[in-house]
Amino acid sequence: MLSSNSTPKVWFITGASTGFGRMMTELVLKNGDIAVATLRKPEVLAELTKQYPPERLLVLKLDVKSPGEVHAAFAKTRDVFGRLDVLFNNAACVLLSEVESAMGHDDMAHDIFEVNFWGAVHVTQAAVKFFREVNKPGVGGRILQMSSIAGFEGSPVAGFYSASKHALEGISEALAREIDPNWNIKVTFIEPGPFRTGATANFVIIPQNPAYKDAPASAMRSLWAGLEDSDVVPVDDPWKAVDLFYRLARLPEPPLRFPVGKTAVDALKKKAVSLLADAEAYASWSENMRSEVSEKPVIVE
Description:
Blueprint: E1 10-13, H1 19-30, E2 34-39, H2 46-51, E3 57-61, H3 67-81, E4 86-89, E5 94-96, H4 106-133, E6 141-146, H5 159-178, E7 185-192, E8 203-205, H6 219-225, H7 238-248, E9 257-260, H8 262-281
Parallel strand pairs: 1-2, 1-4, 2-3, 4-6, 5-8, 6-7, 7-9
Helix pairs in contact: 1-7, 3-4, 4-5
Organism: Ceriporiopsis subvermispora (strain B) (White-rot fungus)
Protein name: NAD-P-binding protein
InterPro entries: NAD(P)-bd_dom_sf (IPR036291), Sc_DH/Rdtase_CS (IPR020904), SDR_fam (IPR002347), SDR_oxidoreductase (IPR051911)
């Protein structure tokens, strides 16, 4: 199926080796658009490079933790295609550990933020600059930030992953409010529930502190580890989700937040109800909080 527009869109995709990144790369190409597929090991996409010519698929080595590689990847995109339409900011990894169990493993926790937050931020900064300065005035572009259901509710045993996605959503929301509307740059963070994408290869697991063995949240370790097992975790079809992401990029006025899958939609609704309930229950506590302002003395010179 060819792209619905006469001019194919140019997509910049991070984390294109596995999961949603790989799926989006394949869908973009199938639909007649152009993919700049970035990943740490370009050889992983060898089969795709055989199927598509370089004017349709540009594969670039990119570790999002390296600002220099981020800059080089966008410069190459400019040199080859002269424009960019959509950023699919997908590269991420997961650390499975209770918050306390991660004591003594700060390097692992820091690395999660280097990839999921700082890496995503550096790519986003480069994309905004490209959309504004390289694309024709007013053309702008779309930023699709791959977040997670864990980006709006803390997930037991994935606290550091949740924190990194909360941070990404916070800075993305701030960015969306900073951008001049005349630039026509739209920001959406996508919040999927559980999907079976093969991305568990990017999971890092820290052994459990024995104190948590019988804690109720301990069961979440098995659920996270069982994402690829249909007998353990029933999940939605990831290809249907990717098709929604593709359609989302073409909406004239896309939403800021886009939950995907019934689990995510239900969780977001429940979170919204909880937030509103807390605000209403304790609203009276914040009444009459302002200090009394006394009259300033009149100084007669």
